[in-house]
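Checklist before submission:
- one chain only
- standard amino acids only
- sequence pasted in full

Submission:
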Amino acid sequence: MDFFEHQERARRKTTLLVVYFILAVVLIVAAIYAVFAGVFPPASPSDAAGSALTIAQTWWRADLLMWVAAITIGVIGLGTLYKIVALSQGGEAVARMLDARPVDPATTAPQERRLLNVVEEIALASGTPVPRVFVLDNETGVNAFAAGFSTQDAVIGVTFGCLTKLTRDELQGVIAHEFSHILNGDMRLNIRLMGLLNGILIIGIIGYWIFRVATGSGRTAGVGRKKDGSPIAFILVGLAVMAIGYIGVFFGKLIKSAVSRQREFLADAASVQFTRNPDGLAGALKKIGGFAAGSRIRSPNAEQASHLFFANGLGTSFLNLMATHPPLVERIRRIDPSFNGDFAAAHAAPAADADDAHAMASGFAPANAVRPATIPLQSRETLRSVGHPQAENLAYVATLLNALPEAVKTAVREPVGARALIYGLLLSAAEPIRNAQLQHLAMKAGADVTERTRALAPELAALPAAARLPLTDIALTALRGLPRAQVEKFQANLRALIEADASVSLFEYMLERMVVRRLAGQYDRTRRVVVRYYDLKPLLPEAATLLATLAYYGQPEASQAAQAFQSGAMRFSRTATTPGVVEAVRENGKVAPLRLLPKELCGLAAVDKALTILNTASPAIKKTVLDACVACVAADGRTTATEAELLRAVADALDCPIPPFVPNAEEI
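Returned file contents:
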C-alpha cells in the first residue's frame, strides 16, 4: 500500500467513524428515551379502555421522544464541539492536555539534544516539516506519541522514561514509528476520534452528576421519596444514564481498538524499513516489557489519548478485546522471530552508547560523505518514495547536517540566530544589493539580528545548495514560539530582502513558501485543507500551468520545454476522450487539447495559485498530478539538484512529502 492509498484509507475511515458516531448517538437517544418512558409513565386514566391505551403510550410518546432526542443530541453535539475546538490547535493541544513540556530547540541537555537530533534527521529524511518536540516529565514509563491534523502542525511527544531509558538506536526506532503515523494520515484520524468520542463519553458524566445531585438533595418535597428526601426517580435516571454512558465508553474503546491495532503493525514495519535496524525498535519494545513501569501513562487524560501512544498506555484490557495496541510479544516477534518471550533480559540502557557520544559532540549521527551531482529520477520509484523514506535518505541527511559549520549549528536553534540565518541565505552576492538588504535589516530587524546576519554570511555562502532548505526547516522550529506580530514582521523582512533585486529566484520562492506554510498555519486555523475535487478534469488548467512552469525551468530551448510538457501531460491521458490527446476545459467553456502555455503566462506566481487549488484534490488526483510532474522534470533523462528541489517543493505544497533525492553511487 503506497502513501496515497494510506491517505485514501484514512479518509474513508474518517467517514466510517462518523457513521459509527451517528449510530452510537441514535442508540443512546433510544436508550435514554426508554429510561425516561419507564421511570416517568403518563398519568393512568380511570377506565379499563384507557388503561390499555396507557401501556402503548408508555413506550411511544412522541413529545417525550422529541425532547429526549433534542437534549441528548444537543449535549453530545456540545461535548463533541467543545473537544474539537479544544483540539483545533493541532498536536500542541494534545501535548498540553497530557501536561507535556516543549523542548527548547537550543537545549544543551545531552538527552534532550539527542532526542532533537533524532527527530530532525528523521523529519528531513522523510521530507516533512520538523515538528515541535515535547517531554512528559511525570511519566516514567517508556512511551511516545505523534499528534496533529497534518504535517504542518504535528508534534512528537515522549515520556521521561523514553527519553532516559532508551539508547539512540532504540529512540530512533520509536521516533521513526511515530513518523509513520504522521506520514500515513493516522494522526488526523486519531485526533478526530478524540473529538467525536468526547460527546459520547459526556453522557456518562452527566448521569453521574444527576445521581450525585439526587442522592445529596433534600430540598424537594413530594411523592416518591425515600425517608432522607432523595427523589427515587432521579436516582434511577442518574444510574440508568450512567450505565448508558459507560456503554458509550465501551463502544468507544472498541472503535479505538479497531482503528489502532493494525496500524501499529504497519508503523513498526515502516520504522524497521526506514532505519534498517530492527534491533532498535525491538529493543525498545523489549524494554517496555522488562521495566516495572512498562508503557503506562498516569495522566488523567491518558484514556482520551490512548490510541495515540507508541505502546499501550493503559491497564490490561479484558481478553485484549479493547486494547488499542497488539500484544508486545506479537509485535516483537514480527520484528525479531527469535524472541522467546523473556523480558527479563531487557535491562536499563547505559547513559550513552557510541552513537550517542558522537551525536552529542557533533549534533548528528555519523554517516558516509555524500555530495549530490545530477539526480536519478524515475516516475514509479519517486511516487513509491512519497511517505516511505529509506535508510539511504536518513544517511544522506545526517551527512549534510553533520558537515555544517559549528557557528551555523549554534545559530539555527536560537530565535535570533535562526532569523539571522534565514536572512543570510537571502543576501545577494552583488555588493550594492547586499548593502541595501543589510541596511533594511538594521532599520527593521534590529542591530543584534543584523550583526548576526553579517557574521553568518560567509559561512552560509559556502554551504552546498542541498543544505539550504533543510537548514531553513530546522531554523523554523526555533521561530514557532514567536508571537504573531514578530512572525508577521519576520515575513515582511523576508519579502523585502527577496524584492531587493526586483526579481524572485526559484530558491527565494521555495524558501518564502516554506516559511509561510510552516509559520502561518499556527495562527490561521482556516488554512487547513478540505478535499473538494475528486475528478481531474476541472483541475487540468491548473495542472497545465504547473507542468508548463516546470518545463520552462528545466529546459533552455522552447522545443525541449514543449517535449517535457507533453511527457507530463500524457500522464493525464486516461481522462482524454481521444487516444493520445489530453483535453482541458478552458474559461470560455470550450474543450481544447492540453498544450504548453506561453512562457509569460507561467512563472512562480501562477504556480502558487495553481498549487493552492490542486491541494484541495483527493489523494488519487494528487498522485496523478505528481506523476505528471516527475515525468515532465525527468523527460530529458537528466535532473539537476535545482529541478529536484523544485519538484520536492511542489510535492510539499500538495502535502505529499518526497524524501531528499540521493545521487547514484558512481556520482558521489
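Reviewer check: The beta strands are 101-102, 132-136, 144-147, 155-159, 583-585, 591-593.
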